[in-house]
Design a protein that fits this description.
Rossmann fold; globular
Length: 257
């Protein structure tokens, strides 16, 4: 069976997870598709959520990781014991990687349709997958970092801490055009620790998602998932936090780093 993996290339969290997934299934994953968001939009959203001081601190971590990610996979492993870019992970496992600025482009959709992957697996893909793309594979599954239907949309890790949840986790669901709204296949929970920061929670979530993704791919080609409903009402959708919500988050003693 063949899998196309849709994701983004950020240096802080995803590279280690993608590395483990490809290590287990490089023979099945035919291509890694990087579908980045608008860089201007991402910067504005991140600045609004983190604020000036924590934006600088996160930016420093991001820049350090991005610089390491430019090195060869072997050099990255020698220096830090891990990889710092999704592109490097794909290269290390000889899996082709392609950056697509618009995954709704008809030419790209036609190429996916011609390749006819059995599974399109989305892990933090930053672009909306339209109906024509979703119809191309036999299965299209997204991994979302919350226990749906709670915290559909952006920054679910933030909202889990904001609402003082005892646990969070990942949800594998069938993809539909609406974000995070398809039927639920399976969920994996992760307890939230005392004194958890947004950075530590996001890192721990990325550490456990690889096993989840590996198990999903293992289920094919004989997958016969028993799905359950995923109610998608407005109350379950959470956008990026506002400036006031960020200030409330910090007033309550929560920390980003």
């Amino acid at each position: 069976m063949t899998v196309w993996l849709f994701t983004i290339d950020v240096p802080l969290y995803l590279p280690q997870a993608i590395d483990r997934i490809l290590d287990a299934h490089s023979e099945r994953i035919e291509k890694v598709v990087l579908a980045p968001p608008s860089s201007d939009l991402m910067i504005r959203q991140q600045y609004r959520m983190f604020g000036p001081v924590d934006s600088l601190r996160m930016g420093r971590l991001y820049a350090q990781g991005a610089a390491l990610g430019l090195l060869s996979p072997a050099h990255q492993r020698r220096l830090t014991g891990r990889l710092h870019s999704v592109r490097a992970a794909a290269k290390a496992h000889d899996v082709p990687v392609e950056t697509v600025s618009d995954i709704s482009d008809p030419n790209f959709v036609d190429r996916v349709r011609s390749a006819a992957p059995e599974l399109l697996l989305s892990l933090v893909c930053a672009q909306r997958l339209g109906s024509e793309l979703l119809d191309a594979p036999e299965w299209a599954i997204n991994l979302h970092p919350s226990l749906l239907p709670k915290y559909r949309g952006a920054a679910p890790e933030f909202w889990a801490l904001y609402h003082d949840e005892a646990e969070t986790g990942w949800t594998a669901h069938v993809m539909v055009e609406a974000f995070d709204a398809g039927p639920i296949i399976e969920q994996r929970t992760l307890p939230i620790r005392d004194e958890e920061t947004l950075h530590s929670l996001t890192q721990r979530l990325s550490d456990v998602v690889s096993d989840f993704a590996i198990d999903l791919v293992d289920a094919f080609p004989d997958a016969d998932f028993d799905t359950r409903p995923n109610p998608s009402t407005d109350e379950h959708y959470c956008p990026m936090p506002s400036v006031e919500q960020r200030k409330t988050f910090k007033r309550r003693g929560n920390r980003f780093l």
